[in-house]
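COMPLEX REQUEST
Ligand: flavin-adenine dinucleotide
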Amino acid sequence: MNYDVVVVGAGPAGSTAAKFLSEKGVKVLLIDKDKFPRDKPCGGGLCEHITEFDHIREKIETDTSDFSDSICMRGKIVSPSAQHTTDYLSETPLFHNVRRKKFDYALVQFAIDAGAEFLENCKVKEVFTTQEKAVVKLANSREFICKVIVGAGGAYDVVANYLRKKERLREKRGKDFGMAVVEEFEVGEEFIDRVYGKERTSMINLKHANLNGYAWVFSKHDILNIGYGGFNDEMKKIDIKNEFKNYLDFLKRNGYLPKWIESKKLKGAPVPFVGNIKKTYADRIVIVGDAAGFVSPLTGEGIYYAMDSGKIASEIISKALEKEDFGAQSLKSYQNIWRKRWGKDLEALRFFHRMLMKWPEKFVKYGSRDEKLKKIFIALFIGNINTSRMKWKIISRIVMDFFVYDVFRRG
Ligand SMILES: Cc1cc2nc3c(=O)[nH]c(=O)nc-3n(C[C@H](O)[C@H](O)[C@H](O)COP(=O)(O)OP(=O)(O)OC[C@H]3O[C@@H](n4cnc5c(N)ncnc54)[C@H](O)[C@@H]3O)c2cc1C
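STATUS: Structure written out below.
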């Protein structure tokens, strides 16, 4: 069967690419190995910039079926010793809490409504391109021919792996890959109202288990989403279940979790960071979302970047279809656009991640005393700041706080 575009993977990146391509009249096949609705280990925090997508904003505003489970208006960043806390109550939403099962299914539905054909429960086993065509082969031996393939299969995407081999790109390195584990607990609305408030406070505990990462609690409507993560090679060295239990015990001791809660189904997934693949396009191929490593190295936020890369890809591919030119040169502007829009910011966040992990106590202490720095920290965490342009301003503020609070010891 022939299509203009086959999208491999129906997560946020693939479904969004399929939706916007279909709206432009492109014949799209969207394929996923899982049957939907399917779950995905995730915090489910959609930072406020997600409302740049009209269809998401409208759905959040109008949907009565709990599409957005809760809105987080307050963020706490806690230092490893728990002696310092940057506590910020916002007047506008920091992020929207969703359940991935529902959210991802809704995104697939948007793509179908726009005209995309959806094939679920079908694993793509192999892809290849020639000058004349692109070919997608399923594990059950079915085969599809198209003009362009979008690789949206997440961290271990089969299309990105093909591109890596074809273009002789280096394999993923330790610091390009993280891992996070998560579990959701039904603790009831009354508990969450009482402990986390109507502002649905989110809490981040830096360097849990001494990892270069953090543990989190996101408070949804009546469930708590609790997890932690760090670099893959560090996670491999620790007892993951035991460290999760330690975090639950810490939360219980401090009243953030009912004493009767026990971990039963902890789940983990990889978190690929920006820079994990140097080239995100090739002849007849575009890579989007986690497959391309579009995740904040500071926070692990990836849903917005997955969706936006899907949208950018749809614009570039539809232009290529108009020109009937699917060569790498024709698709190259995809990479230029995402780098300009937020790619450089994600790279700059890698620097702030390193700094935060080196001096977490100092940073959280400064953030707890300096209102301006507090706002900057929160903006960095919710991806609401032009990090690459503001880098030196942020650094000078931190240096100033170092003199104020550590050298002259005021405040
Ligand atoms: C524990 C954890 C917590 C996180 N918390 C947050 C958060 O709070 N906020 C946030 O913004 N981001 C978070 N992230 C990151 C976020 O989950 C990802 O960035 C996001 O899911 C990327 O979307 P995607 O569409 O690129 O990939 P995915 O969501 O991984 O979707 C890929 C899809 O491709 C399918 N697929 C894979 N291989 C094949 C194949 N061979 N054939 C067919 N289909 C295939 C899969 O079944 C899947 O449906 C978290 C990640 C983890 C691991």
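REMARKS: The pocket of flavin-adenine dinucleotide is lined by residues 8-14, 31-34, 40-45, 123-124, 152-154, 158, 180, 182, 227, 269, 271, 289-291, 295, 300-304, 306 (CB under 6 Å). The chain has a mean pLDDT of 94.
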